[in-house]
Amino acid sequence: MSLKSDLAKLDKKALIEIIADLGKKNKAVQEYLSFYFKPDEDGLFEKYKTKVYEAFFPKRGYGYNLKQGKQAISDFKKLGPSEDLVADLMLFYVETGVEFTNDFGDIDATFYSSLVSTFSAALKIMKKEDVLDKFKDRAARILKDTRNIGWGFHDVLCDTFYQFYE
């Protein structure tokens, strides 16, 4: 049996109890329901932007955590915000990674590969949503800010950029 058919058998009061209990026990569910009933894309975006930033520049200690940054993007996406905000957060991930590199020096190929794949995915979303022009200056600034970074990072970003912008 599917979850949907099991839930369909319950009365309204039982459904409310289950959902309320689930929201109490699971922070992700609580956040989803909160966003569902009171959508605040801007507030949600700022919250996840902070999470992405802290993946590179943690409040305590030092070092980066790419997995944490990517997870923040994934979690944000699951909540159902507009696609252009998802692309915006992805671009912010790349900008923050570039800032980290420029502050602390060259990292490694895996690091840059993550930034390149996120940059490419963001541009694809922007194209699909017809918002490339809205983000062109920021995307171009990334190219400018990566001129002196090694591992062919700048060159790959340029190739990616020019696939979307003439």
How does this structure look, described?
- With 166 residues, this protein is mainly alpha-helical.
- The chain has two domains: 1-38, no CATH class; 41-164.
- 77% of the residues lie in helices and 0% in strands.
- The protein is built from nine helices and no strands.
- The protein has helices at 3-8, 12-25, 27-37, 41-56, 66-78, 83-104, 109-128, 132-145, 153-164.
- Helix 4 (41-56) runs parallel beside helix 6 (83-104), helix 6 runs antiparallel to helix 7 and helix 6 (83-104) runs parallel beside helix 8 (132-145).
- The longest helix is centred in the middle third of the chain and has 22 residues, at 83-104.
- The model has no long low-confidence stretch (mean pLDDT 91).
Can you tag this structure with a few keywords?
9 helices; mainly alpha; 2 domains; 166 residues
Q: How are the elements arranged and paired?
A:
Elements: H1 3-8, H2 12-25, H3 27-37, H4 41-56, H5 66-78, H6 83-104, H7 109-128, H8 132-145, H9 153-164
Helix pairs in contact: 2-3, 4-5, 4-6, 5-6, 6-7, 6-8, 7-9, 8-9
